[in-house]
Amino acid sequence: MEQEQSLFPVGFINLFPGHTWRTLGLLTLLGIILPIVLIYHKYTQKAGKVLKVPGSSANSLIVAFTLVFSFFRNKSVDKNVLFLQTLCGGCYVFDKSRIWRFFMGLRPVALFYKPETVEAILSSNVNVEKSFDYSFIHPWLKEGLVTSGGAKWKSRRKLLTPAFHFRILEDFIPVFDEQSKIMVSKMREKIDDEYMDIVPISTLCTLDIICETAMGIHLGSQENKESDYVKSMHNVAETFIARVAKPWFWPDFIFYRTQLGKKFLKSTETMDKFTRQVIRARKSEKLKQKVIENDEDNQQDEIASGYRRKRQAFLDLLLEHHLKDNTLTEDDMQEEVDSFMFAGHDTTAVGISWAIYALGLYPDVQSRVQEEVDSIFGDDKDRPITADDLKQMKYMELVLKETQRVFPSAPFIARDLVEDLNVNGYTLPKGTTCIILTYMLHRNEEVFPNAEKFDPDRFLPENCIGRHAFAYTPFSGGPRNCIGQKFAFMEEKVMLANVIRNFHIKSLDQRDKLHIKMEMVLRSKNGLRIRLEERNKIVTRWLPLCIAVLLPVIIVFINRYKRYLQMWKIPGPQCCHPILGNANIVPSFYRFQGVAPHVLLFQTLCAFAHLFDKERFFRFWIGMRFVVAFYKPETVEVILSSPTIIDKADEYSMLHPWLGSGLLTSSGNKWKARRKMLTPAFHFRILEDFLHVFNEKSDILVEKLKEAQTYKWVYMEHFITLCTLDSICESAMGIKIHAQSSKDSPYVKAVYEVGEMFMARMMRPWLWPTIFFSLSSYGRRFYKSLTDLHNFTRWVISNRKAKMLNSQAANEKEENTGENGVGKSKRRQAFLDLLINHHLNDPSLSLEDIREEVDTFMFEGHDTTAMGISWTLYLIGLDRTIQQKIQYEIDSIFGDDKKRPVTIEDIKKMKYLDCALKEGLRLFPSVPFIGRMLKEDIVVNGHTIPQGTTCFIFTFMLHRNPEVFPNPEVFDPDRFLPENVAGRHPYAYIPFSAGPRNCIGQKFAMMEQKVLIANILRNFNLTSLDPRDKIHLIAEMVVRPKQGLRMQITPRC
């Protein structure tokens, strides 16, 4: 048999007998094990000292592994967000000692966030070495000022400090001003957007500034985001953070063999090449200049007297030193320029971004900054900013300092100990990484009372007296503090001043909605969303128009003087002015941070209702618009039962662009004719045909809720709204839009957008005139979405009509066997089919009329039903007893069968569920207000209400009349048992309005609500997590919870 060939040459193998191979293997094994043992022995020696510092009592390696594993296992939350939250959580746990420790692998880490302990680290002249992770950026920064240590750092620091003298930094102010004005122009391009993220905009600006000040070149990243240098810088930052977060990438021999490492090296090579070319070109220019200027003395005189006035880059200052003293080499200059780029780019960008965000969040602070800036520049938005201007910006400096306290650009500072250190009685051994957690240091309640409050006055001189020097360290502290802090503050002042000179800022996200993460700088995971408005825009653009509008208003006021006298006699809140009425309350809705204007509006109206509880009606007015609120059954009946008071309030006209003059918004003879035509379409027998739709969509809803069972809680109204949108589309238009399966449906988005813009207009009286609204960003968004809605509806109608004509030709007899052409076919017919049938028999009902009615049905039957179901489920989830009674009733109908469709006979048996639904609509009526416009004077409670007044039926408070509903805030379905309803005033409970203009679709809504709730409670137990006193109500087109209805879902056994 042929001998197998060895992997080694035969001659080589023969040199070693068999036992020698065993010896080599044993030595190799020892060579691997011995270093591990030595490392572990060294670790245990360190650990013995470090473990005495407060921290977790569990095995340090296990804790480190568990933390890292949990960060990367969690896919729903950014690991850098989790990391910051974990560190902050540990700080709260060990708040008493204000020092604690943990391990990253074998590396001990101690956290400091108390001024006295922070001072022990930062004030040391010995422990000035940066932490180990800074070595990861050595390929780019080499041993520049940021990364070097020991004697080299000290000599380089001494060399560079004069370059940051204030007089030299003043030469950079024109660069700050020029680039920040480009940033302002870029912001202006986005002023009509729904929002803008300020971080990338400010980042490109600071990158242009740092390139021009550090290297003397115009990078133009604000104009050209595709620059190789810009891309490479961003790549290096991303890969650095990714490497720090993954301990298995820390060894160089592993990292540089990964795609991430190769990308990092390629990017650093690109930047190195760019910086070298710039240095050599600038050096060549300097040498040519020196040859031309033969007289060195004259040259020195020029530099001393006038040359400094020419703008010089940081690189130019280094080159001057290099040409005088060649100990500073080209490589040294490249290290320092790159370090300046690294240290001064992102930190300043996020610093100015957080400052802009803070101003947008606190209008009172923004107003004070604007006043200060206006006192310096007046109305001149173009004058260049000077050093003297910056000195006058006292309050802005306080704002920037407070921003750095609450949102420090560098959330932590890290040092590696080069010798043992005693702190608070604990000995930290050499090699320990010390992290100063600036983010928590700045939240020390002993130093900064009410630390989470944004208060620039903390930094007034009198408030800083006696404050510990290391209690506030946004730019580090001690011998290794930030050399460029003056540069950063000057840059931020110039940028912020130019923004404030041009815009009003509004931040869209409250602080508790931000997911803050700790990277090289402090960031918000989802950016910082703001909206801008031009300053003085209204005055300059609308002044002539306002004058033209004001004169007719005065004339109208004179003509309506009698109406004002009549309104004054009606009970109501005190008016600020005969013309303005109660308009003074509107601005107050926008002054309170953290409370939505819709919430304040609703609370104000409820407060007025309580204030005038004895009369149970009151008046108010805004400008020429008179409103009288009614919430007593007897007075409500006067309005709603009248066959003449059927015109909707003027506010409904804002819906005309969407709904036209459909059943909701029309009036007079058109409304009467349209109501008479459509009433048969809502006959109970026809509505039975929609049960299949309700069952099908609620089955999909149940499946979606099953998928959500694993969540701690869900916002129930989100699920319900998508389900009712599916139901209404199929029942109204006969099409499936799959809103529950595809939340990105353009139709779904357009419906939400139109509703949101309608309410934005309602809350802003200055947008009530159509001309103003059309020119606003809200109006543009409204009409854009409206076009999408109308195009979609028209397309559906035309296609549906074509199909029905084809079907009619094929089976004419079947399609025309019914009264009014509606048909008595057993096939389920959509609401749209019924309208088209009428159109085919009576062309007076045009396709545009059909579009109006379909859109109206969509509007009225979508959100109202969704919120009716959601509020009822919320109330059921608060009361376990009532929930069990409903489930008992449902189980008596369906038994254990959770799949059988609900039939009309089943619905008739749901007596207690019917009571619960009615009680839910009593406490939270989907439509909280009903509006009517008076066409003639009427007398109510002895008061004359003049023609043209809006009568405002306050359903929400009408349903809380203790004379009709004792203990009205209690959820009690038994109120609607037949024996308890007997004798109740017919206008005491009107969730679907009442009288001749009551809701035509109330039977449709009640059927749909019963099917959905029955199918949900057949499958799940519900628990509402927030008590009613924690829910903030918003008066929009329907009553909504501001923060959502949090509910816990558990499957029924």
Automatic annotation (TrEMBL):
Where is this gene product found? Endoplasmic reticulum membrane
Q: What are its cofactors?
A: heme
Chief site of localization: endoplasmic reticulum
Instruction: Give TM segment ranges.
Output: 20-41, 53-72, 542-561
Q: Give the SUPFAM superfamilies listed for this entry.
A: Cytochrome P450 (SSF48264)
- Which keywords does the record carry? Endoplasmic reticulum, Heme, Iron, Membrane, Metal-binding, Monooxygenase, Oxidoreductase, Transmembrane, Transmembrane helix
Q: Which InterPro entries match?
A: Cyt_P450, Cyt_P450_CS, Cyt_P450_E_grp-I, Cyt_P450_sf, Cytochrome_P450_Monoox
Q: What family is reported? A: Belongs to the cytochrome P450 family.
Indicate what this protein is called per its UniProt record. Answer: Cytochrome P450 4c3-like
